[in-house]
Amino acid sequence: MNLFDLKGKVAVVTGGNGGIGLGMARGIASLGATIVIAGRNEAKAEEALATLRGMGAQAGFVAGDVTHKATCEALIASAEKQFGRVDILVNNAGTSIRKPPQDFSEAEWHHVLDTNLTSAFFCSQAAYPAMLRQGGGKMINIGSMMSLFGAPFATAYAASKGGIVQMTRAMATAWAKDNIQVNAVLPGWIDTDLTKRAREQVDGLHASVETRTPQGRWGTPDDMAGIGAFLASKASDFVTGTAIPVDGGFSISM
After folding, report:
1. Residues 13, 25: contact at Cβ < 8 Å?
2. Could you give phi then psi for residue 132, rounded to 5 degrees?
3. What is the pLDDT of residue 138?
4. By the 8 A CB rule, do 59 and 52 touch?
5. Segment (H or E) for 108
6. pTM
7. Cβ pair 238, 38 in contact under 8 A
8. Which of 83, 157, 175, 230 is catalytic?
9. CATH number of 10-244
């Protein structure tokens, strides 16, 4: 039995057109899965599709704003129509607004929570019946170091990522009977467009991360490929409800 064979499987990756999402998509595609990227930036998605197809993977794109339930339902329906099934869902769409908690507007709070947490809930809801039709599936929710730690500039982001972990645990208990494994990944400080802005906005962040991380560096999107491959494959069939740091040791370091 090949535990890492995903040939014939279809994975939907929200926010899969760059950064952590594309790193996860590359790992899943390397095992033979078809990848459906969901996002709003079509030009960026075309670059990601070229990368995936350059690996020999079959890949498609569905445009849309996954903060809306109807869009999530349309995304899963489109993936099924294009490729016949949905077996894997990576809930990666995310954003952040960095400011002290007292300065958040109502709209800013809802924008971060809806993008990071509500979208994952709606996409999971939409994917559930599609996975039932295949006899099971894999859901991978992207949390953060802010699922574990606090920071004065990340109130809304931390709330959303803490929510991801607890939502993952609840869904894992609800859907275990359906052979659907639901897990969370907690990336450390990964070098992406989102964290580039963080380094511009938070004084000393770059040096602080390098100093605290035992491996002495920021992560790269390719560092996310292995955990994506593991949690999407049969190798993780008895792993559910977990929140796995992929952080170079950041979360265990003083």
Report:
1. yes
2. -55, -40
3. 98
4. yes
5. helix 106-113
6. 0.95
7. no
8. 157
9. 3.40.50.720
